[in-house]
Amino acid sequence: MTTCAEQRGVTVISLLMTTMALSQTTCERIGMTDITSVTSPAVIVLGERKGTWPDLIRAEKLVDRLSRRGDVTLALESVLAEHQGVLDQYETGAVQSRDLPELLRWNQWWGFSWTDYQGLVTSADRNVRVVGVGAPLEARPEDVPLSLPPGYPHLLAQATGEHTMPVALESTFAQNMAWMDQRIARGALDAWDGEGWLVVLVDRLRVEGGLGVQWQAQRMTDANVEAFVLADGDSPCFSGDQVWRPPLLSVISDALNL
């Protein structure tokens, strides 16, 4: 009869093999060191699952580590660009953190827990320049040029998974998404002085597959642009994506109820 210790041993071996298999998929599994090793000046685009741990904790820790080594500008999709004045007032001490949710119209725009994002939005406390780059999904003005990544409609259809839409609307949706990606990238780069790191935190849908915000940013700057997905959210693993792997010890501990 197999003992409990033997069963646990088999489970650990199975988990190790699973982790090794995951590391061999088309996307690359990375960790904190891989991101902090990006040499400045550089643009780092992070894809988050909105309002989800551990994505936000990882983003906050990353910004903190980078800020100890040099200048950091943090661009947040979670804050509308039109509210930049509020962020500037907080940086100078003219606005208190308790007043930020109302002044930023947090619940109306983003809707996810303010507490989860507070550390990021108030990164000025760590001498980080914080920039709002959020923009509503809307049609591009006809007189404004748009850079549309090749194959973007097909990529978005894959990334949204079960949330399908009529084929006739895929092209329009892709154009609207690309227009928002373009505005986010432009707003972030315009606010960056080119020193240190520009960290842009956006919905992971704008990072997966490499045709979102980072694709737009690469066409607007000569600086190195890197993109990372902050967690494996059981979504498609696109070739070339860099996805933050779960800590191996955490995976094993959860499985064994340790």
How would you describe this protein?
With 258 residues, the chain is of the alpha/beta class. It has one domain: Rossmann fold, CATH 3.40.50. It is built from eleven helices and seven strands. The two termini are 23 Å apart. 33% of the residues are buried.
Key words describing this protein structure:
five-stranded parallel sheet; globular; alpha/beta; 258 residues; two-stranded parallel ribbon; Rossmann fold; disordered C terminus; 11 helices; 43% helix; 7 strands; 16% strand
Concise account of the structure shown:
With 258 residues, this protein is of the alpha/beta class. The chain has helices at 4-22, 32-36, 55-67, 84-92, 100-103, 106-109, 114-121, 152-159, 167-191, 213-218, 248-256; strands at 28-30, 42-48, 72-80, 129-134, 197-203, 224-229, 242-244. The chain contains 11 helices and 7 strands.
Assembly state of the chains shown: single chain
**Based on DSSP secondary structure assignment, what is the total number of beta strands?**
7
CATH class: Alpha Beta
Please name the CATH architecture: 3-Layer(aba) Sandwich
**Total number of helices:** 11
Low-pLDDT residue spans: 4-24, 249-258
What structural category do the secondary elements indicate?
alpha/beta
Radius of gyration: 20 Å
How do the strands of the widest beta sheet line up side by side?
4-3-5-2-6
Please trace the helix and strand order, writing H or E for each element. Answer: HEHEHEHHHHEHHEHEEH
CATH topology: Rossmann fold
How many domains make up the coordinates?
A: 1
Helix content: 40-55%
State the major sheet. Answer: 5 strands, parallel
Instruction: Quote the average pLDDT.
Output: 85
Label the overall shape.
globular
